[in-house]
Amino acid sequence: MKYRRLGKTNLDISVVGIGTWQYGGEWGKNFKQYEVDAILEKAKEEGINFLDTAECYGDHLSESLIGDYLSRSKREDWIVATKFGHHFHGNFERTRHWSVNEVIKQLDSSLKALKTDYIDLYQAHSCTDEEFNNDELWTMLDKQLEKGKIRSLGISLRSNEESYQTDHASDVKAGAIQVVYNRLDRKPEEQIFPSSQNQNLGVLARVPLASGYLSGKYKPGATFNSDDVRSKHNSEETAILLKQVEEIQQNEVPEGVPMATWALSWVLKHPAVTAVIPGCKSPEQVELNAKAAQLADDSHPQSVK
Question: Residue 305 has what pLDDT?
Answer without folding.
Answer: 79
